[in-house]
Amino acid sequence: MSYSRRSFLDAFAAASGTAVAVPGAVALFDAAMSRAIAQQAPTGPVPPLQFLSPNWPDYVEISRLLVASWSKLGITVEARQGTTQSVLGEVIGEHKMPHVVGVSWGGAPDRIDPDYFLTEFFHTRRATKGGLNYGHYRNAAFDEIADAQRREMDPEKRRALVWKAQEMLATDNPIIVFTYRNSTQAYNKARFAGVVPTLGSGIGMSYIPWTYYKMRPLTSRRIVRIANFTEIVTLNPFATPEIFNATLLRWMYPTFVTRGPNGEIEPWAAEKWNALDGQTVDMTLRAGMVFDDGRPVTVEDVKFTFDYMLQWKFPALARVNDVLDSVEILSPREVRFRLKQPSASFVPNVLGFCFVAPRHIWQNVPGSSGVASPADWPNENPVGYGGFRFREWRKGEFVRLETNKNFFLAPQIDGAIWLVVPNIENQLAMMESGAADILGWTIDGEQAKRLNRHPELEAVSVPSHGMHEARFNMELAPVSDPAFRLAIQHATDRKEIIDVVFSGLGIDALNSVITPANKFWANPNVPNVEFSIDKARKVLADAGYTWDGGGRLQYPRR
Amino acid sequence: MSAEAGRGAHRLAARLAQSLLTIWVLVTLIWLMFRLLPGDPTTALLGTGQLPPDAIQRLRKAWALDDPWLVQYLRYLANLVVGDLGLSFVFREPVMKIIAPALVNTLLLMVPAVTISVMLGVVLGARLGWRRGALSEVAGNIIVLVLRSLPAFWIGIIVLVIFSYTLGWFPIGGIRTPAFFPETWIEEIPGYDVARHLVLPVLAAVLYFVADPLMIMRTAMLEARTEDFVAYAQARGLSDGDVMRIARANAMLPVVTYVGIMVSFAFGGQVLLEVVFSWPGMGRLMVNSVLQRDYPVAQAAFLLMAVLVVGVNLAVDLAYARLDPRIRDD
Question: What is the number of alpha carbons within 13 Å of residue B75 lying toward its C-beta?
Fold first, then answer.
């Protein structure tokens, strides 16, 4: 979930008093759930379907459309919203699920690898409190395929497994993917040229900052101002799992590999790598990299950093401890990673997330600083080695970076200022007045149209692998019935959702968690479920459901 | 004389003890309130999708969230007594380092806003009350009631639309220009940049705040008008302005009481104004810390508010005793 913007929306909701209604909404769900669970062998009328989502504006809209559409099956749909935190706490934290829960997931780079959505959303292992398989999809055959694709190092063979997994999901329908919503930002084209549309990041988000490495200043304004929602909370790269904060820190501490504009894996702080077998990966560090304090970046620093992660088990870097066994130095530029088990996502998601920390600084942390873990160390003056150097941070206001002209891909701008602007109207007005040059978060179609009316501004909409989805509670009637879930899929008008809620700025989902824009991994043979109320009713009728005289849907007679 | 001084000291000590007790009760209630909210500081991290369940468990253990409530509460109290407010779960820094800058920013905005509002409120309210029935009073009442019924954020947006979006006289938001390089002599005046950023939020806050002291002053003035001492002053042949000033001095007590309440509201920050003006103050910090279940920051912020309210009430009580000698004997 990309919740930084949400916390702003929450702030508004909390301040305007809407949040007060939430505990009540959750209590109502509890009551509805216990009623539904009590119906172990359901008979009679199908109970009201409970749809929960956070109170984000897009989900409020989606809920309205779903209620209208699903009701045509002869059921009552009760849509409710909670604050982000209450939904997170109940649904992910406690796995307290009503029938259907809708949320959205941003296009973070590590979600391009198919392992993320397949394993985190659907593996039985993640069907525990805190895990993202809160719908409790449990399918041993699927688990086997998901584990196999994770071990398979040959891309073609792995793709066959990933396609198979997508087919299984399309058969079982544990999820409705409404759309892969585009990432849409505007920039000032009179001042800067050469923005780079990038999968998941659009032209302006921090995830994969190709734009900021490649953009050219056209005027004397050589420092780009980015209007953003996210409050930066730490400068410590070991500390934060929050993806905006983490990725901004990666501008200063580059990862070993990165993703190209279309999602392909590319070298970054590493020059090359070689997976000898699934459990051994050799990597060559890029030559000539220098820390901001003038010392060279060495393989000793690399080994130190990974040993440090293994030693301290930073929660934000849990993926390292899950898979990495040890690191050894092979030569002045080469290291060898030994993994606990074969991992196809090691290169994109571990080498694409980890970084080098200067040993001469971090070996003395926590030291006598009095903090319990290096994750608690403020790192007030980050010493990195990226294309951007830290200059200044004012909490709640901005982070200011200057470019490092010695970086192998030296940015052409002189710096970047990440402005915290918690109000979208102000962000738009700052673009219009020239106070900001580019947006760092996605805007909607109407806002894009408004900015496009200014000759110096241009909004660019780029496909993303992030998605808006709803998950079924696989243990709760009626959605525990595969036929019922299929009927709901048929009764969901994705086209309408994309057009009405997102002004058409989204990709109509295949019935899969992998967007067609993620070309290598998406299975083109998994078609979307056709929107047709007639077909939905037929699916239900074929499964034995009936309608009473008032048109209300009845469970199949036993 | 010394007996009276002794009684005064005794009364002060009793009031102080009462205030401390109030604060302890508040501390406990605030502490409990956050524990009763669903979720804990790790909840916000769930939505990142980056932490596997066992990493969450490790964090809960490391942050001592699994300890029994009583243990957590006593630890909190013990730390509080020695002035240790703890580490922010979100920022991983001492709470004071997070709150102090936000508080400074809020004071920067609210001290001028409250001062101007109260002064304007007293002066204009007295005039309105004094000129009962005049056209200026009717018009003034309408304007004030309209301001009173507008939400703060709406006033903020309107002020922005006029003076920033349309006229372009002032910045759209924020407290300073990042990487500000002065180009003219005016811009070189220290504080120029911050002052420019301050104008619109202060204006919006004044428009929002001014109505209450103004209406209270007006009502008190209406009552004072009919008092004997006013008739006496008029009988002495004083000018209308002088009589009004005498009445005003006597009508100010309710406003003093209200200022106490207003100060504690204002210094807690006005979250909607802060969002509208991208102002990094206490309001935004408090709302964010509550939403993210950042207990230490939220507790400290609420504690600060509580101390402020109690302290201001104490000060108001003492001021009352000065302004109105009758209260001293109660």
Answer: 11
